[in-house]
Design brief:
Elements: E1 2-9, H1 13-24, E2 29-33, E3 46-47, E4 56-57, H2 58-71, E5 75-78, E6 81-87, E7 90-95, E8 98-107, E9 111-113, E10 129-130, H3 133-136, E11 144-148, H4 152-161, E12 167-171, H5 181-189, E13 193-196, E14 199-206, E15 210-217, E16 223-226, E17 230-233, E18 237-239, E19 250-251, E20 255-256, E21 269-271, H6 283-302
Parallel strand pairs: 1-2, 1-8, 2-5, 8-21, 10-17, 11-12, 11-17, 12-13
Antiparallel strand pairs: 3-4, 6-7, 7-8, 9-18, 14-15, 15-16, 19-20
Bound molecules: flavin-adenine dinucleotide.
Length: 303
């Protein structure tokens, strides 16, 4: 079986930062990534809270992260991790291409979009329902769209969509956004953005493609419709941790628990980034977790 000092699972901001720190510390480091290195920021329109860079596209920032890890000779492999286990006291990663034993492992597989679960959502994915403004916004040039959610991602992506769409409704279950004030203020000043407060989506309907959403006011129970051709879902995330089973302790549906040095409940297994049980999931926190996890892995391997 292939044997490595450190295996990092996932090449988003957390995994790429961990790779950079681990290589600089002299560890034999292998990064396993199922897709393109960069993680969620690859589909992020603009990032303006990565310190030292006033504004960057997500794609540019992702490329900088990847190039920086590669500069220090981190080794990358494109493969999907299917299972993580401790066998005879050894940490084993099972990938779609075979097994790897590692002295230390960093779990950095991030998170994916939560689905709303309303009628029509599944049926219209790719036919008007989207989870990625950067990927699909240009298909809605001069059309009306609805964004579902009220956090930073929902409001930022609504601003991005307004460059293309005629009108952008933001359907939110509360009467104010959860987004940071600077983000919410920007949306408030945007004439194309129309908040629909106290409302939830009941159904997405259409004939082959999306033609509208039926919404319910949670205060009055009144039902109404919005004539839109696009529905962008930004209602939270779920951890990419199904492959982990019970190898490490997790809470509330698989968010992985760690101490402040990113140590999980299992010796030699560390965690970093959005997949961790934490209350702030951003590029800067993922990167910071990655640095800590790498240094903890270094200490574990060397002592
Ligand atoms: C639309 C959008 C806008 C955002 N805007 C901002 C913003 O403005 N500012 C900000 O700071 N943050 C923003 N974020 C959040 C930020 O992108 C995340 O917090 C950050 O990317 C988390 O990094 P991560 O490395 O923990 O996980 P991720 O970025 O999710 O990366 C995880 C990686 O692991 C890989 N992976 C998953 N499972 C497996 C497996 N089984 N095997 C192999 N590889 C696997 C994935 O392919 C992915 O590349 C935004 C996110 C989105 C989606």
């Amino acid at each position: 079986m292939e044997q490595r000092e450190l295996v990092i699972i996932g090449a988003g901001p957390a995994g790429l930062t961990a790779a950079l720190y681990a290589k600089r510390a002299g560890l034999d480091t292998l990064v396993l990534e199922k897709g393109k290195a960069g993680g969620q920021i690859l589909i992020t329109s603009e990032i303006e809270n990565w310190p030292g860079t006033i504004e960057s596209t997500g794609a540019d920032l992702a490329e900088n992260f990847r190039a920086h890890a590669e500069h220090f000779k981190a080794e990358f492999r494109t493969t999907t991790v299917r299972k993580l286990e401790v066998r005879d006291g050894k940490n084993i990663v099972t990938t779609s291409d075979g097994e790897i034993e590692a002295k230390a492992i960093i779990i950095a597989t991030g998170a994916s979009f939560r689905h709303l679960g309303c009628k029509g959502e599944k049926e219209f994915i790719g036919k008007g329902v989207s989870f990625c403004a950067v990927c699909d916004a240009n298909m809605f040039e001069e059309l009306d769209v609805a964004v579902i959610g009220g956090g930073n991602t929902a409001v930022e992506e609504a601003c991005y969509l307004s460059r293309f769409a005629e009108k952008v409704y933001i359907v939110h279950r509360r009467d104010e956004f959860r987004a940071d004030k600077v983000v919410a203020d920007r949306a408030a000043k945007n004439p194309k953005i129309i908040p629909v407060w106290d409302s939830v989506v009941d159904e997405i309907y259409g004939d082959g493609i999306v033609e509208g959403v039926r919404i319910k006011n949670v205060k009055t129970n009144e039902m109404s419709t919005l004539d839109v051709n696009g529905v962008f879902m930004f209602v939270g995330t779920v951890p990419n941790a199904a492959y982990i089973n019970d190898v490490v302790e997790s809470v509330n549906g698989n968010w992985i628990k760690a101490d402040c040095d990113m140590r999980t409940s299992t010796p030699g297994i560390f965690v970093a980034g959005d997949v961790r049980d934490t209350n702030l999931r951003q590029v800067v926190t993922a990167a910071a977790d990655g640095a800590r996890a790498a240094m903890s892995a270094y200490a574990y391997i060397n002592h």
